[in-house]
Amino acid sequence: MEAKELRELARTGKNFTTSGLAKGHVQTNVVILPKAHAFDFTLFCIRNPKPCPIVEVFDPGEFVSSIAEDSDIRTDIPEYKIFRNGIFSELSTDIKNIWRSDFVVFLLGCSFTFENELVKNGIELPYFTNKKNVPMFITSLDTKKAGNFSGKLVVTQRWIKKDKIVKAVQSTSRFPNQHGTPIHIGNSEEIGIKDPYKPDFGDPWIPKNPKDYTPMYWACGVTPQLALEAAKIDISITHSPGKMFVTDLKDEDMAVI
Amino acid sequence: MEAKELRELARTGKNFTTSGLAKGHVQTNVVILPKAHAFDFTLFCIRNPKPCPIVEVFDPGEFVSSIAEDSDIRTDIPEYKIFRNGIFSELSTDIKNIWRSDFVVFLLGCSFTFENELVKNGIELPYFTNKKNVPMFITSLDTKKAGNFSGKLVVTQRWIKKDKIVKAVQSTSRFPNQHGTPIHIGNSEEIGIKDPYKPDFGDPWIPKNPKDYTPMYWACGVTPQLALEAAKIDISITHSPGKMFVTDLKDEDMAVI
């Protein structure tokens, strides 16, 4: 299915994960919040570009993306998470009824782009083939604060065969707007991860021969969700994990080299 | 001289061009404007990352840069340009007396970083050695609007020997936050430049054997200055051309590969 068809399917109210669909198209994390908080959140993203790489920011009240033809951000995501005063309130397949003219939409880069690139480069991602989620950990590293937005850095974990570490760095270097290079390689404890087999979110990944693999950690798009909770703003909306906004851009459009 | 010493020299009121000083340190374009316009200007930069690559945005009222130790943006630039209602009003070596607690400071990437890289890669930049300015042209290309910020794209021009075109693309690819890759190679008319020897700003560059050289065009930091004029905001401040804010960052800190 093409990106536009996927958006149209979501618009009918169908609730599905977008991982692996419209392959080669850039999918994005989504954050929507009132204009009163938009400048601070933009600064948070600019100061923390690895977990929060900005792909597009809409004008206040705008719901059509410039990188997704005939799109409507109020309907074109399969599932939305609505937060009130920083606390998760409800899920919905549509936010037309709560849309406000002062809402600002942020599209943030997502790791699907570089995961395609890792696979193309011969790096095994078993959670892909097993229909599981990548393991995610809350680290001891602080993000850079902006206004009321702050919190710890969340990372995704991938166990990489030792002879593929260089390739994994090179592949992800090409996509600075999709989390880019890893933030840590090796000893998990150094970034506050006590047990590398017990993720805070997602599914555990236990390599068969751990001594042949090194854990590599990349900044994760869940980071801004924690910062949103910390900011306790009146209302904010995100996509549901794995149910992303699919744009018309191709992965290679985002590559720097 | 080190970056910090240069800032201290500017702080004493000395008025000098920073080009070629504190070599290897990242120098930045500076825009300062009231918070009421800061979100729109941030969007303008995000939508036009080649002419307006964001290096740092300060908190409102903040005058110390996080990438320049003990700095004070109100005194540490050799010369400031002050605009009122979008019109150039006066020059000053200090803005302490007009500083406001709602001012937001933007540091934007500058081409000095990639010029060092071009020279290292054997590309001749005669204006460097002749103490002239790079030629700059207002193109026919529109920037992407944000709020009241809009205008044409301004570019710098460099005549590159035909066997160095690839190298020039590669070298500047490494620095997406310092204008990055060229926006046009060759036929100047295609981007609205009628006479490639008559720049709108800076000094003309006439290659000795024009048929051995191709003009290459890069997005230029003068673009946001035109957008600032178009926005006609009550007060805004920039650095004077060639008299930049010198940070403690090294050029290589900005390289993506």
Short description:
The structure is a homodimer. Chain A has about 260 residues and is α+β, with helices and mostly antiparallel strands.
How would you sum up this structure, described in words?
Two copies of one chain form a homodimer. By secondary structure, the first copy, chain A, is an alpha+beta fold. The first copy, chain A, has two domains: 135 residues, PSTPO5379-like, CATH 3.40.1640; 108 residues, PSTPO5379-like fold (2-Layer Sandwich), CATH 3.30.2040. Chain A is built from six helices and eleven strands. In chain A, the strands form two sheets. In chain A, strands 1, 2, 3, 4, 5, 10 and 11 form a seven-stranded antiparallel beta sheet that branches. A four-stranded antiparallel beta sheet of chain A has the order 6-7-9-8, with helices on one face. Chain A is globular, with a radius of gyration of 18 Å. The two termini of chain A are 28 Å apart. The mean pLDDT of chain A is 96.
Report the radius of gyration of chain A as a whole number of Å. Answer: 18 Å
CATH level 1 name of the largest domain in chain A: Alpha Beta
Global shape of chain A: globular
* CATH fold-level assignment of the largest domain in chain A: PSTPO5379-like
One letter per element, helices H and strands E, the order of chain A comes to HEHEEEEHHEEHEEHEE
SSE topology:
The structure is a homodimer of 257-residue chains.
Chain A: H1 3-11, E1 25-34, H2 38-47, E2 54-57, E3 80-84, E4 87-92, E5 103-109, H3 112-120, H4 126-129, E6 136-142, E7 152-161, H5 165-173, E8 184-185, E9 213-219, H6 223-231, E10 235-239, E11 245-250
Antiparallel strand pairs in A: 1-5, 1-10, 1-11, 2-5, 3-4, 3-10, 6-7, 7-9, 8-9
